[in-house]
Amino acid sequence: MTVFTRSRAGKVLGGIAVVSVSALLLAGCAGGGGTPAPSDSSAPVAEDLTLKIGSVLPQTGSLAFLGPPEEAGVLLAVNEINEAAKSLEVEFTPGDSGDADNKAFETTVPKLQNAGVSAMIGAAASGVTKLFLDSNVQAGIITFSPANTSPDFTTWDDDNLYWRTAPSDLLQGEVLGNLIAEDGHKNIGIIYQNDAYGTGLFGVIKEVFESTGGSVVAEASYNDGDSSFDAQVSTIAAAKPDAVVLITFDQFATIAPLLSNAGVDPANYYLVDGNLKQWGDDVSVSLEGAKGTTPGPVLETDFQDRLNAAWTDAGNAALDDYSYAAESYDAVVLLSLASLAAGSTDAADIAGKLQEVSGGSGEGTKCTTYAECADIILGGGTADYDGVSGPITFDEAGDPTEASIGIFQYKADNTHERIDTR
After folding, report:
1. How does strand 162-164 pair with strand 142-145?
2. Diameter over CA atoms, the chain
3. What is the CATH number for 229?
4. Domain Leucine-binding protein, which positions (predicted)?
5. What is the pLDDT of residues 140-174, one digit of tens each?
6. CA-to-CA distance for 43 and 6, rounded, in angstroms?
7. 311 and 318 in contact (C-beta within 8 Å)?
């Protein structure tokens, strides 16, 4: 577990994916309810609050591979919170974020705003969240992302309505930059997407790698929606780097073989969370030996089993990737606990309790499940939720101050396995 602390002046943004299962759209009224009554384990507790949330997660677009694990995390949390019956019920409406190219969020976000949600989980892509965050702030709605990593959100003017369970790329970039140096590379090339995510991560990796004595001998950017990458590959290959960092989304599947054909050994590719997927036959060259990073802890088998049970019971295929599933799950739990602690479903009231229930303020009692934390709150105490994704412990900007970064390596079948955690 890497612990990092930053003092910040502003607040942030959010993003995650959604589940297509109508059974989750529970009947209930919007708006805040009364103050929850103390729990009594011997009798059922009245459902005093109905918390309406929606998701803006990638069901389509260049990050669609992150949709299933994120959606599964949301689905599992909603199921378990409602089954707990601790004076709060979650009414959930899913939606597609798409990406900055297909702009599916332009349909989803207004629909959720009109539905009266208190919070939206998402988007996954930092660049997409930037396109609707201000609209949600003006509407008085929380944006809570499980996957946004752009450092820009730390100082965003968001009226305390942006939160995230994923750490800033200041951490992932530091880990990856140092990893490349530790692997013995001295001269690297970087191809990156020209958006908030790509430019932010590019800047950190370059700064960290050069601080180790290495050199970035070539860099090339492209825009989301581009389909030709010959110019970028030519720029990188001409500099003859001994490793190449690829800060992309699904464009990696096109760029990887082009680099290989230009003489760059795929074993010296370094990937990031936006493209670290189980590629299999979807990439036409062998990635054996390539490495990459993704924020998130080693997940307990029990959590993976619960995720898959919830996801497959809803009619979906079993998960083969768990990226940001824990962060998505924790986002829903934290919103629910904050609502319970505030005795309200008003977004501003919930936001006012999010730091507290994460252990970022106050002297709360540690707890690791929604039900356990809810009992503490309903008994008059202060809960400090340590989640599946980590202790979280929000700072004043709504960023987690404790997080871990996984290091992965590809095998001969173009699937990856975790080899280290930092």
Report:
1. parallel
2. 72
3. 3.40.50.2300
4. 50-358
5. 999 999 999 999 999 999 999 999 999 999 999 99
6. 44
7. yes
